[in-house]
Specification:
The complex is a heterodimer. By secondary structure, chain A is an alpha/beta fold. Chain A has 2 domains: 131 residues, Glutathione S-transferase Yfyf (Class Pi), Chain A, domain 2 (Up-down Bundle), CATH 1.20.1050.140; 121 residues, Rossmann fold, CATH 3.40.50.1860. Helices cover 44% and strands 11% of the residues of chain A. Chain A is built from 12 helices and 8 strands. In chain A, the strands form 2 sheets. Chain A has a 4-stranded parallel beta sheet with strand order 2-1-3-4, sandwiched between helices. A 4-stranded parallel beta sheet of chain A has the order 6-5-7-8. In chain A, helix 2 crosses helix 12, helix 4 packs across helix 5 and helix 6 packs across helix 8. The two termini of chain A are 30 Å apart. Chain B folds into 3 domains: 73 residues, Roll (Ubiquitin-like (UB roll)); 90 residues, Orthogonal Bundle (Fumarate Reductase Iron-sulfur Protein, Chain B, domain 2); 35 residues, no CATH class. Chain B is flat. In chain B, strands 2-1-5-3-4 form a 5-stranded mixed beta sheet, covered by helices on one side. Chain B is of the alpha+beta class. The chains are: A alpha/beta, B alpha+beta. At the A-B interface, helix 1 and helix 3 of A face helix 4 of B.
């Protein structure tokens, strides 16, 4: 995991970040800058598709993501970048899975290369990382700049699905992830353990049947509350949107992006 | 002479002609699907296949030359419903565009639109820029769109590019570009009647006098 301590990354924001999660982007970029981690946003990037298609012959749905990976490949060749950083776990999941599919199935890569005749061939090997991995790989830098104490915070970590499943692309143990807890504990933030941290929030069911999401989120949130949490921290814009169906402004429990939580710790100047 | 197939029927036409001229040579008369004949108005879309090529290509009939054995049809219009809006009431962001053109989220980045564009615009980049909520970048990318609609005929996501891009340019021009101060000043002068005397003097002049005045005019800082 040594590559994670590299300090220069390409950055793939994703569509949701640019419209519905601007504050997540703002806090994340601020945090990384303060940690001395340099980001360069891709000059051109394409919608990842938000959900990886599971049909084995649906190669069309890989095109957007592969174009993004090729764009990253071009910049990595010219500059000293160690990977492509994502904030949105959906983007992370899709790009990482495209890498996996193309590595394991050369025929698909061949078909895509033929189809995208105007593009150079994707040579695999673009290292897609999520901001959580970069934060966890650079705890020392965080410790150095952490000036505030968050003694009043009792944090329940909510991972959601897409950073952890399928296990081939998981950033940590998909059954019992601890990467964010370990990060926060080493920064002396109090953690609340609860059993629903990898439970699905209901995801896109919010569009067709809100009740599915509300029921699931209530279960997650009430468990965190019962265990004494006053913050539930998330890393995914869709999880955040769904949690906010239940967690409202002024509630005992606040939903907060991990980046925002850490910005509280290091000060926002 | 080369042989072309217009809607399946063979015609012998001279080599080197544009598709438009070749069809006129063959006896057709354009009532619609023809405009500036200079590649700028977007009226004369054409769709064709060449022998030995599996690809269906598109172009402008006034800009594409005939090739021996080519099969073609004229495609001057891509049917699409035009949305009606009040531009001054709209916010220049992705939300507005999704309201009128929700189909843009179906873009799979196949790039068929870019390959179809007779203006060589980065059409797919523009669609993606819109999705990234960067209206200004999108507007600049598609500034030269001639609204021929050929991209829309090739789009698997059924995006209505001509009207979409028109909205993007309007949002950019109305809400994002800074106002041209000098134009506002001049309009104010005109409304206040500052140039009335000058105009009525001009209106009374003979053609000869006007011509002399025009040829002897000073341009760009030439006056005292």
């Amino acid at each position: 995991m040594n590559y994670l301590s590299s300090l220069k990354y390409l950055y793939y924001p994703g569509c949701t970040i640019k419209r519905d999660a601007l504050e997540y982007e703002e806090k994340s970029l601020l945090l990384l800058r303060k940690m001395g981690i340099e980001l360069k946003e891709l000059e051109s990037w394409y919608c990842c598709g938000a959900l990886p298609s599971l049909a084995i012959d649906d190669i069309m749905s890989y095109v957007g993501g592969t174009r993004t990976l090729i764009e990253a490949q071009k910049l990595i060749r010219r500059g000293d970048f160690n990977g492509l950083l994502t904030l949105c776990p959906m983007c992370y999941n899709v790009l990482k899975r495209i890498n996996l599919v193309l590595e394991n199935d050369p025929d698909k890569l061949e078909i895509l290369t033929e189809y995208m005749e105007e593009e150079e061939r994707y040579g695999l090997g673009v290292n897609v990382v999520h901001i959580v991995e970069v934060l966890a790989g650079n705890i020392d830098r965080l410790k150095e700049i952490a000036t505030e104490k968050l003694t009043e915070f009792k944090v329940a970590v909510y991972y959601g699905c897409t950073l952890l499943r399928p296990k081939e692309i998981a950033i940590d143990d998909p059954e019992n992830p601890e990467i964010i807890e370990n990060l926060l504990t080493s920064l002396e933030v109090a953690i609340v353990d609860y059993p629903f941290k990898t439970e699905c929030c209901g995801s896109y069911h919010i569009l067709t049947n809100r009740n599915i999401v509300v029921d699931r989120v209530k279960r997650i949130v009430s468990s965190a509350l019962r265990r004494g949490a006053n913050i539930i921290t998330v890393v995914c814009p869709l999880c955040m949107y769904n949690l906010k169906q239940v967690v409202k402004e002024g509630n005992k429990l606040r939903a907060m992006y991990l980046s925002e939580l850490l910005v509280h710790l290091v000060g926002d100047r | 002479m080369v042989r072309i197939y217009y809607m399946g029927k063979a015609y012998e036409v001279p080599e080197g002609l544009t598709i438009m001229k070749a069809l006129e040579y063959a006896g057709f008369r354009f009532i619609r699907g023809s405009g500036c004949r200079g590649g700028f108005c977007g009226a004369c879309g054409v769709i064709y296949r060449s022998p030995g090529e599996y690809k269906l290509r598109v172009g402008l009939a006034c800009q594409t030359t005939v090739k021996d054995g080519m099969h073609l049809a004229i495609l001057p219009y891509s049917p699409m419903v035009k949305p009606i809006y009040r531009i001054d009431k709209l916010k220049p962001d992705l939300g507005t565009i999704l309201k009128y053109f929700p189909e843009i989220v179906r873009c799979v980045s196949c790039n068929s639109c870019t390959k179809a564009c007779p203006q060589d615009l980065e059409v797919m980049e523009a669609i993606q820029a819109i999705r990234q909520n960067d209206i200004a970048r999108a507007a600049n990318l598609i500034f030269d769109c001639i609204m021929c609609g050929l991209c829309s005929t090739r789009c698997p996501a059924d995006i209505r590019h001509p009207y979409l891009f028109q909205l993007v340019r309007r949002l950019y021009g109305k809400h994002l570009l800074s106002r041209a101060r000098h134009v506002e000043l001049r309009v104010k002068e005109i409304v206040e009647g500052r140039w009335e005397a000058e105009f009525s003097k001009l209106m009374k002049m003979s053609v000869e006098e006007l011509r002399k005045l025009y040829t002897e005019r000073k341009i760009e800082g030439g006056e005292k």
